[in-house]
Amino acid sequence: MVKERTVILIMIISLIFSCKKSIKNSEVIIDKSNNDEFVKKLEKQMSFIKGKKISSLSKIVGDTINTSNKVFFLYNGFDCEVCIDIGYEIGKKIDSINNGKLVNIISSSSNVGRDQLKNNYKNFVFNDEKDLIRKELKFIYTPVFIILNNDSEVKDIFFPNYVRNKKEEETFIKKCIENSQKF
Hints:
The protein is of the alpha/beta class. Helix content is 54%, strand content 13%. The chain has helices at residues 2-33, 35-49, 57-61, 81-98, 112-118, 132-136, 166-181, and strands at 71-75, 103-107, 125-127, 144-148, 154-158.
């Protein structure tokens, strides 16, 4: 009886460790092999969305803010958690450089408070509980930053992710600041 329990325990432990190892190995393979195809899909979404006016935006933010020349960080609670954190970090950096609030955050997550607390974000986060913006934009990949021009049309897009390219991030941040100072 004791031998059987020991054998079962050893099998369970070895199974747990082998699963952890295969998960880590598969993540590396997924990241590397599908990256080019994934980037192409994101570029296709970007070209589809640029120049579009987001009419559902007024249903979420109401008349509380003027949407022209603003930056919106849009995310869903099911997105990559690290990517959401990076988005908050970039948003706070843009606001800091701008010396005032420029980035407005919109979440379709049910636990916005957790994200705010985790990322030490004290400003208001708009809630898109019906996922209106993503529906209007044909379920754009999130998290995403969207820069709007003077006519509240999509001028530029940036997808924060865990494979950070600091040069691209800095270029995007400069675009946000320049866009806000044009008008």
